[in-house]
Write a structure and sequence with these properties.
The protein has 65 residues and is mostly helical. The N and C termini lie far apart (36 Å). The model has no long low-confidence stretch (mean pLDDT 88).
Length: 65
């Protein structure tokens, strides 16, 4: 869950690895596994998923006129 949150927030692999005290290769593997399990093919899709399930909040505000 924390890995998805950091990735979806746009955190670089190096930053994520440092924050979680794991290697960059481990971060990359976790990202690959998440994407495969969720059938998502791009990072932006992970971000949309994380927003949709409430892991992160969207900073975009929509104005309907």
């Amino acid at each position: 869950m924390e890995m998805l949150q950091l990735i979806a927030q746009g955190r670089a692999n190096n930053g994520t690895a440092a924050e979680l005290n794991i290697s960059v290769k481990t971060v990359e593997k976790h990202r690959q596994n998440l994407m495969a399990k969720l059938n998502i093919h791009e990072i932006s899709g992970l971000t949309r998923y994380a927003i949709g399930v409430g892991i992160i909040e969207s900073s975009v505000q929509l104005t309907i006129r």
